[in-house]
Structure formats: C-alpha cells, structure tokens
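chain below, 478 aa
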Amino acid sequence: MQDVDRWRQTVRLAVLGLAIAAAAVGQSPEQPAGPSADLNVETFDFAWRKIANTFWDQSMGGVDWQAVGDELRPRARAAANNGELRLVLQDMLSRLGQSHFGVLPGPGSVESPSPVDDLGDTGRCTRALMRAVAGAGGSAASDAGPGFDVRYVDSTPVVSRVEPGSSADRQGLRTGLELVRVQSQNLAPLAGCLELESLDPWVAEMVRLRAVEGLLFGDPGDPVAVEFSDPAGGRSTFELERAHHPDAVEIGFGNLPKMRYLFETEVLETGAGRVLAVRFNVWLIPVIEAFEAALYGEPAEGAPAVDGVLIDLRGNPGGVAGTAVGVAGYLLGERVVLGRMKNRNTELNLVVFPRQISSASQRIEMFAGPVAVLIDGGSASTSEIFAAGLQDHDRARLFGEPTAAAALPSVIERMPNGDLLMHAIADFERPSGERVEGRPVEPESPVSPTREGLLAGRDEPREAALAWIVSELEGDGG
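prediction:
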C-alpha cells in the first residue's frame, strides 16, 4: 500500500502546473474557449498510443490498456476544455500505477485577464512560479545563478552554500539565512499553493527545490531580488547579479540541451592521510577524466595520490548514466553491474570495468581507500544510480538524506492540443534488483544540515562523512 500511495503522490506532481494555474488566476484553470471534440479525441489517442507503444512492460503491468482507452475516450470527447481533458488523461495514466507519467499545461494554455505577477503575498503562486514548476523556469545545470545554493531545513528554505567571488559573496550573504521572497514571489505560501501538505517529505522537497531554483536562475547579467531573514527576524534584501561560475564550461551531449558543467576539487590534509573531496553539478563525460586527474594527478599514472575520497552529489540532478559507470571503474576492483535499464525489447546492464590504464595510456592502480558519498533530496537519476550501485557493492558509505527517487528514463512530448505528455520509456533496477523509482536511496548515515550549523558556517553532513573517512584510515572504523 505504501508504494501505491507513493506513485499516486508522484502522479499528482505532474498536474501541479494545472493546480498552480488555477491558484494563480483565482478562477477555473481554463478559459471558456476550449478545444473541439475532435481535437480532444486526437489528443487522447495520441497519449494512449504513445504509452501503448513505449511502456517497458508489454503486458502493461497487468492493465487492460485497450479497455482503459475504450472506457475513457468518450469522457475525453465530452471534455469542455483542456483542463477537463487533462483530468481524463491523468485518470488514464494513473491506471498504470507508475510515476513519471503525467500531463502538464502547454505554454499559453492558461490565459489570465489580469496580471498575476504581484500575488506573492496573497497565499497564491505567481505566474513566474507556475512557469518554474512546469519546467519553464531556470535550471542550475544550464542557467546563470544568484551565487548561492538553497536547501530546505526543517521545511524552511535557507542558504546552504555561498559561491566564493560571486555577487552574493561580495555583498556578504552568509549561510543559514532564510529565503523569504524571490522577486515578487513570497515563499511562505509555497506548501499551500503547490499542494505539498499531503506529499511524502522527500517528494515535497524535490518540488520545492525545483520551484525555488526556477525562480533564482536565469540569464547571465540579469538581476534577481531576494529577501532574507535572520534568526532574530531581521529582514534584508539583496539585489544579486545572475552569473555563471567562472570555471563552468558549456557543453552538450547528443540531443541534450547545452549545460554548464562545473567540477570542483579540494584535497584535505588530515592526520590520517590526504582526502580528495569532489563536487560537480551534472554527470557528463568530462567528469570521468576530471575525476581521474584529481585522483591520480596529471599525468595520471601509478598509485592514487590520495588516501580517501569524498564525492558530494547533493543537488546533482543526474545526466549521462555512462559517466557513473566510468567513475565507478576507478573505485571497483572487479567487473560488476552498477544497475539495469529495461525497456520492452532490451535490457541494458550498466557494466563497470575496473580501470587499469589511464586516459594517457599509463598503467594505474585501483583506488582501494574509503569512499564516502553525500546525497540529499536533490540527488536524482544518475546520481542515484551511482550511489545505489556503490552501496549495493559495499564500496561506499552514504551520508546525508534520502534521494529524489526519480530514476526512470523519461521524455516530454507535445500533444496535438498543445499540452505536454510526460512518460517513462524504461525501468531501472539497482544491483540488488530493487527499483529506485519511488524508493529513495537511503544513506547508511543519515545526517541533515541544521540551521544552527549553517549559521555557524558548518556543513554537518560533509563533516560526518570526512570524520568517517578519517576513522577508516586510522583503522577505527567499523
């Protein structure tokens, strides 16, 4: 029953755009002029056929898909507008009992007769927030940011990290401050206007982070006004300049949109040995070579140059799955499977081959020291594949918070009426055989950041992971 409840909750996320639209304009989510009955049926049949042809289980999970279509097509024809049609389509998709299936309003599907960009104090969602949740807002992987990271701590959005040298850093922004408002959007009503109260905490966190990041990120050079509150209740507003990190590199892969790739490293000298800490914002092919250089030095050859490794995947939304396989090759001494992707016709094993030769064609030794991985509710897709794979093979200890539980390969396609159909095209299993979708990867060492720790400039999950690595190097770890 718990799994059923979770997929129902996740399916609800797909219609958040509809709910937000209704809240934003304070009226029914659709204007009187609606699509014709023929367009309704054309749209319904498009979605029905797409799922019938691409769902990874040819038996449709035991659902009589033909009967579902026959039952709901008359309701689709009779829908008075796109809003009613979306509800019919959601009913159809929910019969599958899976997440990553949903319908989102297409651009322009909601028209308001009056501006809605000044509703931040009314308990409603602004148009900007609606666009962000529907996927039209900014993205940390591709757009310019405000110079700080945000995480939810005890249901409160707070500054979790300030980027050195950024506009936020130059103005003296510090970690632990609460975000009160981004532009005209007051963040206090988010739980209500996004209807998050009935969701699992890990699902709600994913939605809230996506919404806030969508408001914070945008075009480089554009300002973004953010209001903050300190523990004493004092308010301050920062006019921050959106900018790309100076070391971020624009890169594309296949049909993926171009993204800003950033790989950061730090070597920590401890009494027990040298610990390499790495942090990157997206899984792309250059991560493999960068990880190799950080682990062995340049040119990479011989034994690793460090004794322990800390990989920070917090907030990392994923990317190219093959990248995780490549990085794991430096950490595993035998050929193993990191996970399996399954579609209707094939099963793709993500096989890890131990790396014995460097990219410079020099012989290298496998890294055999302790590995800690930091995860949280923003760790999704390839980050979950990597963390779950190393966990199942007992090669890393995970610290932090449960992941996003969003590992299904999915696509979003425009339907004839202009709305968007989100559907998964494959399933994923971790080495243990358990699905990741709908089941967060759980850390062996749960450690959440605290407001007090952030205000003091501390990163408690990172400190716990580092302490464990040191104890392992000293021979005191279990």
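The mean pLDDT is 83. The chain is about 30% helix and 20% strand.
thats it, cya
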